[in-house]
Write a structure and sequence with these properties.
Length: 223
């Protein structure tokens, strides 16, 4: 499996690629993409899209989800995002847009491509970066969690005043790798229909993020 990733991230994460767990993960994925052709998402070339869309130096916000959409044609390598031609939008993404409208008054759109956020410094990361069709969590405990721990640790060590938006219990476990004094951690339930009414709606992550960025002389995100 080829490591297609932005050069800035490759440099930061170089040691991870040499570790035994990551070698085992690559082997697992190579077999998955061969044995389950067209049923592993996203496609291989898009696995690290989140890093290509937002280089290390530009990261101001991390939105952390669980694993990619397990529905064919949805996952594009950016957490919660889909390509602009995908309709209808996934329910979790619809709920994100509902909260955005409630929080900042920004009308919902039918374009679910969140690369517009990534270009402004929002790292759209999942806890696990691949999934088998129709089987949420099918690639858990294969090494991705260790890799994304390393991503958060690298950001925490080398940057400060980053906003971490952690949606769902699995994502919130990453908070242990973040210095809460030097950064802002926003936790809420996952935006999926199963949990969104337990505290995701009304959590105001978008306004809280921009208030914090402005307070630290950083440019706000145009959500």
């Amino acid at each position: 499996m080829e490591l297609r990733m932005n050069a800035s991230w490759k440099k930061v994460l170089a040691k991870e690629f040499e570790k035994e767990y990551f070698k085992n993960l690559r082997s697992f994925l190579e077999n998955e993409y061969v044995d389950n052709s067209n049923q592993i998402f996203p496609e291989q070339s898009a696995i690290f899209n989140a890093f290509d869309a937002c280089n290390f130096e530009n990261v101001k916000v991390v939105i952390l989800g669980q694993d990619p959409y397990p529905t064919k044609g949805h996952a594009n390598g950016l957490s919660f995002s889909v390509n602009e031609d995908v309709h209808p939008l996934p329910k979790s993404l619809k709920n994100i847009f509902k909260e955005l409208e409630s929080d900042l008054g920004i009308k919902q759109v039918e374009n679910g491509d969140l690369s517009r956020w990534a270009r402004q410094g929002v790292l759209l990361l999942n806890n696990v970066l691949t999934v088998r069709e129709g089987e949420a969590d099918s690639h858990k405990n294969q090494g991705w969690e260790l890799f994304t721990d390393a991503v958060i640790e690298a950001l925490n060590t080398q940057k400060k005043n980053v906003v971490y938006i952690l949606w769902g219990a699995k994502s919130q476990k990453k908070a242990k790798n973040v210095n809460g004094e030097n950064n802002l951690i926003i936790k809420s339930p996952h935006p999926s229909p199963l949990s969104s009414y337990r505290g995701f709606f009304g959590s105001q992550p978008f306004s809280l993020t921009n208030t914090y960025l402005a307070k630290n002389q950083l440019e706000k995100i145009d959500w």
